[in-house]
User: What shape does this take?
Amino acid sequence: MQEPMYIKIHNQLRRDIENHVYQVGDRIPAERQLAEQFKVSRMTLRQAIKTLEEEGILERRLGSGTYVASQKVQEKMSGIMSFTEITRANGQTPSSKLVSYKITQPSLSEKERLALEGSDKVLRMERIRYADQVPICHEIVTVPEDLIVPFAKDDVSSHLYQTLEKQGGYQIGDATE
Assistant: This one.
């Protein structure tokens, strides 16, 4: 299935921001100009811009235009953000409902992606994530068991990244979302 055009535009504009084509505080070109550049309707372009706004990467200023968001948000773009951080950055209140939490054998792809050995196990946790009490996503997290053994289930299920970083001394270097 081919990626929708607005996603392609979103990804290109995000790359442009990450590569400093547009700097923090810069006004991006007008919708009409960008629509011509990408050879799409303004409606398609607006959808891409709206998605970048929702992610906190761009901000609209009434009567002035659309600008690359503040440095604080930009610094977070290059790192891994937890759902809680992303939701709070968007001015919303995050919450979760734990659906399942089990230690189990990894699938073949999990074994490969996590570089696990023969008998290594994983925590597979499912949560419904909410922003302002509105369900946003169904999340399935797979983590090598040895990373979470020292921690309480409540700490892991409610604040995984924070628990690993602050209590475990780990630095989150990579995640596939």
